[in-house]
Amino acid sequence: xxxxxxxxxxxxxxxxxxxxxxxxxxxxxxxxxxxxxxxxxxxxxxxxxxxxxxxxxxxxxxxxxxxxxxxxxxxxxxxxxxxxxxxxxxxxxxxxxxxxxxxxxxxxxxxxxxxxxxxxxxxxxxxxxxxxxxxxxxxxxxxxxxxxxx
Length: 150
Prior knowledge:
The chain has one helix at 22-73, and strands at 91-92, 98-105, 110-116, 126-132, 137-141. Strand 1 and strand 2 (98-105) form a beta hairpin. The model has no long low-confidence stretch (mean pLDDT 85). It is α+β, with helices and mostly antiparallel strands and 150 residues long. Helices cover 35% and strands 19% of the residues. It has a 5-stranded antiparallel β-sheet with strand order 1-2-3-4-5, covered by helices on one side. The radius of gyration is 28 Å and the shape is elongated.
């Protein structure tokens, strides 16, 4: 029996084998490039927000534990180990992006600061977060870092 396929062509389950052409490959590369150029900045912003949230969570934990310590000792502490942290001062967040310290503590108030540790574009947005015993929250250089959602 004779085959209906031209000579030199391989027979497959679907018919004649065929590859992709250069224009098809270029179209795919352009589409991937466009998607990447849109997605990557969004991803970087998401990562930055997560790192800022880590710093704020660490400061909130310090504030909460300072209140507990104050109830037991009638004073605030400069020692992070008294608040449940591994180091006595200058503790890093989980991603090691912010360094958290208690800069001042006495019988009536405390101040805790989270400072950005890397030298990149994020440093220009939210370099420091500060919280006090009176629950005053500040940030620099942008004053809205505590409340910013983007």
